[in-house]
Amino acid sequence: MEKVIILGGGLGGLITSIKLALAGIPCLVIEKKSYPFHRVCGEYISNEATPFLEQLNLFPAEFTPPLIKRFQLSSSTGRNTVLPLDLGGFGISRYTYDYFLYQKAKTAGVNFLLNTEVESVTYLKDKFEIRIAKQTLHGDIVIGSFGKRSKLDIQLNRNFIKKRSPYVGVKYHIRRDHPADLIALHNFESGYCGISNIEAGKTNLCYLAHRDTLRRHGSIEHMEKEVLFRNPLLKTIFSESEFVFSKPEVINEISFETKAPVENHVLMVGDAAGMITPLCGNGMAMAMHGAKLASELVIRYFSEKEFSRQNLETTYREEWRRAFTNRLWKGRQVQRLFGNKILSNLAVNLAIYSSPIAQGIIRNTHGKIF
Ligand SMILES: Cc1cc2nc3c(=O)[nH]c(=O)nc-3n(C[C@H](O)[C@H](O)[C@H](O)COP(=O)(O)OP(=O)(O)OC[C@H]3O[C@@H](n4cnc5c(N)ncnc54)[C@H](O)[C@@H]3O)c2cc1C
Predict the structure, then answer these.
(1) Contact 361/346 with Cβ under 8 angstroms?
(2) Residue 118 CB–ligand 1 contact under 6 Å
(3) Does the CB atom of residue 367 touch ligand 1 within 6 A?
(4) pLDDT tens by residue, 304-358
(5) How far is the CA of 92 from the centre of ligand 1 (A)?
(6) In angstroms, rounded to a whole number, what is the distance separating the alpha carbons of residues 343 and 350?
């Protein structure tokens, strides 16, 4: 019988586990892969999370992550402008950062089952039953931090999984002379591509495209040449960079549909609770913020007798909605401006001729320091 079982060891799961372990609550993280590994992600972390990370000694200072303070936006025709970023952020690869957090979690006393996929989670008589290959585990509290899409979403019969999602995500690490303090967002037909620096002199190039565009062009390589290259800035970046990976990391079926933060008594954290459109560049900060909310309430559940499971679930649901629902909605609205020739030009014109409005929009999709 485990006190807390955490399903999925991404940012949300790892940070929840560290917070709980530091409060003396034993927990087990079950992760289907083994660290370190690459993930599709723009790898830009919003500074809304920095004070929280510093407080827990989880800011990756030893990798001297580039500090990002300016934002370049280009339309699909290459028309572009640069704006200051109020809050800004820093860049670090998931390969490095998730491994760094895994080591911090181990030091804090968290237990791990790696290379282990959770098959199902069931709530029975005030306890959870977790099935992994040839074994059943039991837990008092379960955190669902299994990311944007998992077989557990099917098992839990979640609504969003019944709809197909048209987005494909592609990531490379490249080497080029990209300004350390700049994150760029370049539009192309049906998608957008983020570029910003990470540790060790590398640059992350990550884009979101529509499945139909990929299907029409047959392969990622053709789609890049036929579609992304129509933005002259992207053509230059692709043509003049050294590619570190032999082939890109790719994921599909990325969904931005609304999800429930508590499902079948499982507290969902990070993308499992709701995914913000990547153009906002703060899904990771949201996963960390969600981990903070969930872990602090779980600590209360174990320390205050009168704080029941029902109190835990209701309070988490309310706090989660207060912190994120509005931002997720705004992110979906802003995404409509992207990936379309006319609308992306309009967005760039807005940024050029009315930068206070554009900065207001950026501010609205970002959260506050937590
Ligand atoms: C194209 C793209 C670009 C992005 N760019 C940015 C960016 O620049 N900045 C930013 O802040 N955010 C960005 N995001 C969002 C960010 O990647 C996510 O919000 C963040 O990773 C969420 O963390 P998480 O812990 O919820 O999930 P994840 O980090 O995805 O972790 C989930 C973990 O659960 C494991 N898992 C899943 N199912 C099971 C199972 N059944 N059993 C065991 N383990 C399981 C997975 O292996 C995985 O390790 C981007 C997303 C996309 C798609």
Answers:
(1) no
(2) yes
(3) no
(4) 999 999 999 999 999 999 999 998 988 888 777 776 777 777 878 887 777 777 7
(5) 14
(6) 10
Give strand ranges (E) for 198-261. Answer: 203-210, 242-243, 249-254
The SS3 call for residue 143 is strand
Q: Is the distance from CB of 160 to CB of 259 less than 8 angstroms?
A: yes
CA of 148 to the centre of ligand 1 (A): 6
- 241: which 2 tokens? 């960079």
Any ligand 1 atom below 6 A from CB of 205: no
**pLDDT at 367 exceeding the cut of 90:** no
DSSP β-bridge partners for residue 221? none
Which is the closest atom of ligand 1 to the Cα of 207? Answer: 1
CA-nearest of 128, 185, 189 to 155 is 128
What is the separation of C-alpha 71 from the centre of its chain, rounded to a whole number of angstroms? 19
Instruction: Decide: 31 in ligand 1 pocket, CB within 6 A.
Output: yes
Q: Strand pairing partners for 137?
A: 130
Handedness of CA 139, 143, 145, 146 (dihedral sign): positive
Mean pLDDT of 182-209: 95
DSSP string, 48-89: GGHHHHHHTT-S-GGG-PPEEEEEEEE-TT--EEEEEEEEEE
pLDDT digit string (tens) for 268-298?
A: 999 999 998 887 789 999 999 999 999 999 9
Nearest atom within ligand 1 for CA of residue 208: 1
CA distance 165 to 75: 24
Q: State pLDDT tens for residues 102-126.
A: 999 999 999 999 999 999 999 999 9
Burial of 150 (0-12, 13-18, 19+ CB in 10 A): buried
Closest atom of ligand 1 to 10 CA is: 31
Would you call 189 helix, strand, or coil by DSSP?
A: coil
